[in-house]
Specification:
The protein folds into two domains: 193 residues, Rossmann fold, CATH 3.40.50.150; 100 residues, Putative methyltransferase TM0872, insert domain (DNA polymerase, domain 1), CATH 1.10.150.170. 41% of the residues lie in helices and 14% in strands. The protein contains 14 helices and seven strands. A seven-stranded mixed sheet has the order 3-2-1-4-5-7-6. α7 crosses α8, α8 crosses α9 and α12 packs across α13. The radius of gyration is 21 Å and the shape is globular.
Amino acid sequence: MDSANFSHIPVLFDETIKSLNIGPDGSYVDCTAGGGGHSGAVAKLLTTGRLVAIDRDPQAIAVLKERLGIYNNVTIINNNFFFIKSILQGLHIDKADGILADLGVSSHQLDDASRGFSFHKDAPLDMRMSMSGPSAADAVNTLSCRELQKIIFDYGEERFAPRIAAAIVAAREEKPIKTTLELAEIISSAVPAAARRDGHPARKTFQALRIYVNGELDGLTKAVEDMFDCLKPGGRLSIITFHSLEDRAVKNALAPLAQGCTCPKNFPVCVCGKKPRAKVFKPVTPSEEEIERNPRARSARLRTVEKL
């Protein structure tokens, strides 16, 4: 993989680095290192500290080795951050001072037509971040109409899910659906003309299939809890989300950490003994200037908590 061709524009870049409150001798984990934007900035701030850069995409790993190879205190791991506990245990790291996760698909994955994430460019219908396991083509050609409808409705919040699922099943009976533009055309033909004028009609279905293929929401709540458990007291966890489903999952996972006493208000003293485990900071969204520079940042949201 040529790193010159691997681009990723980190959103909320300055805000994210600041949120981690980096100390030069601390230990940090970038769970979704991608092109190394955030990781590179963290590494520059370290002296005796350590950084673990994780990514599930083999192409990203090759780029990270090239871009971060100058740092002898950076460890690069090809894995899914859902396994952060076992990853850190394998590296003999007990707890970290800061953990970052930039969720969703990277700019490179979207822009590289061959990866099959985009409905704007023709390519094999793939969408696998890890470049292994069942692809989006496998999903659309083998799942039942009911299963496709549920995926498209639940993960894409697409109100025309029944029509789109039925159109996919009808089309694959004629011949297998193999490319991104084939699928985009099937989706477009399945929705009313008015819906086709309200943004690209395939956007929500492609999002849904990508989330399904990569298991992005399967276990996300537990992954957030595991990341928090891997922090030292005073350590910070910062997570960037890009759509309402993952943001809701992250928000709901973080909220109980800040909850204290749950005794009824008329109790004179606390008997439950529950104390807040984290300080939750106000969510941060991109500025208008950043959105103008990088339209993909529009829906981004940064959530940070500090372990008490």
